[in-house]
Each structure stands twice: as structure tokens, then as C-alpha cells.
Amino acid sequence: MPIGDLSLAQALLAARRSTTPAAVPADDVPVAQAYATQRAVHVALTLPVMVWKLGLTSEGARMAHGAHEPAVGRLPASDIFCNHGTIDFCGDEMFAEAELVFELGEDLPPRAQAYTRAEVAAALKGVWAGIEIVRTRFEHSDLPLGLLIADNVMGYGLVLGDRLATGWEARFAAMPVTLTLDADAPVAGSTDRVMGDPLDALVWLANWLCVHGEGGLRAEQLVAAGSCTGVTEIHRGDTIVAAFDQAGIARVVLSA
User: Fold this and answer.
1) DSSP string covering 116-142, please?
2) Residues 6+ positions from 29 with CB-CB distance below 8 Å
3) Where does this protein have coiled-coil stretches (predicted)?
4) Which residues of 109-127 are buried (b: 16+ CB within 10 A; e: fewer)?
């Protein structure tokens, strides 16, 4: 890891282990250093990656952050929350995103040749409804690209909902999705907000992991493919439901 990232990694690790947020640095960090920082924080947790998460999967989100590609984060198994469960509200602000979640049934190890849609689809053994819970470890969430990546793309946890299918189906390319908080009007979205087709997002990730020395995708890992509904702020006591057409839901309650 570049030496300049050491203090940032330590600050983010300390913020993860406590209720005290890290100060936002005055300057952004380059993307390569940001990923090195993110990796260093995860390594310090001594837990394997169970979930790869994609952020900035819409063109608008990438333009807002000056990014030319999606952003990647990682979560251990301890950050996976049960469907219909309750989780604690923590920090000053938290957000929710409805996301399609892929489950790998086979390894997609590093190789020189890029993986194709057909190869990636064949490696799947499950497609799930999900809710990503998002929060920053910094003092506020208005972050430039490098600090966003260093902060694990603000990944906090994944609610794994209903299993929608045992593999990829064409209906998932443009499936209507809603995110509802209590009795509020649903936030409408679609799976095609994820790079035009969430399977393309998964293919991009499989190849990105190969190129960047992350060991590829492995059987049993999950991939939260990106937000289908945008980012919605959530509050204490909220009941959050992500509904994927008539296929299934993910649901979680925030403690009051």
C-alpha cells in the first residue's frame, strides 16, 4: 500500500470500530491509492470478502463524481443482514438502495482473456432481492471520488432478501423495482438503471477483479450489482422494503 494511505486507512479502521467518525481530509486521493486504502482496512479486519458491491453504476452517478467506471467495495459475511430482521441505526445519516444480488456457484479466476456474458451467467447459482445499507465512516457523506472509494463506497451492510431465481433470466435485465419506507410513496426504479443491464455490471466486475489483482470472483461470494432505485435516506424506526416486480422482496427494520 502506498505510504501516504497509511494514516487514512488507520482513521477509517478506527471509525469502523467505534462511533467516532473520521475527519474528512482536505484533499482527495488518487483512485489507485483509494483502493489500496480500502483493501488495507479490509485486510486489517482479517475476514474474507463475502460480498463485492458495485457503486456508481448509473451514468448520472458517475458524472456527478467525475468517474469513468463504476466503483467497487467489499464486505465480510458479518455485514450480511437477515431478511425481515432488525438492524441498528448508527451515525448521523444512513441510506438504502434496492439492489439485485448475484450468488456465484463457480469460481471465475483471474485470466488474460476477458469473461463473456455467457460465461458469467453460467457461473451463477442464485439471483436474490437485496437492500444495501449505506453509511460513511467520515464526518459527512459529501465525498469526492477517491475518498468515496477509500470509504468502501460507503458500504455498510447487505440485507439478503428472497431468492428470485437459481440463475440469470432475461426478465432481470429490465425488471421494475420499488423501495418503500413505511407508508411513504414507493421510490420507483428498474434493474436497467444498473449499467443498462445488471448482468453487464457483473461481467464488468469479474473482469475488473482480474485486472486489478483481486483474485477474481469465487464460488459462494455475493455481488450487490448496484442501485436500481437511487439513494434514499433512512431514519430510526423505518421499515424498508425493496420489491422486485412480483418476484420477491427484501425487508428490514431500523431500530428506534
Assistant:
1) PHHHHHHTEEEEEEEEEEE--SBS-S-
2) 4, 5, 8, 37, 146, 147, 150
3) none
4) ebeeeebeeeebeebbebb
Say if residue 158 is exposed, middle or buried (CB neighbours under 10 Å; 0-12, 13-18, 19+): buried
Q: What order do you get walking across the sheet with 85-87 strand by strand?
A: 85-87, 248-254, 239-244, 176-181, 187-190
Count of other CB atoms within 10 angstroms of residue 233? 12
Across 106-121, average pLDDT: 97
Rounded-to-integer distance, Cα 50 and Cα 54, Å: 13
User: CB neighbours of 175 closer than 8 A, spacing ≥ 6?
Assistant: 100, 190, 191, 244, 245, 247
**In 3D, which of 242, 245, 231 has the Cα closest to residue 60?**
231
Copy the grid coordinates of residue 100.
439485485
pLDDT, tens only, 177-224: 999 999 789 999 999 999 999 999 999 999 999 999 999 999 999 999
Distance of CA 217 to the CA centre of its chain: 15
Q: Is the pLDDT of residue 5 over 70?
A: no
In this structure, which amino acid lies at residue 71? A
User: CA–CA separation, 160 vs 244, rounded Å?
Assistant: 13
Instruction: Give the whole-angstrom CA distance, residue 14 versus residue 151.
Output: 12
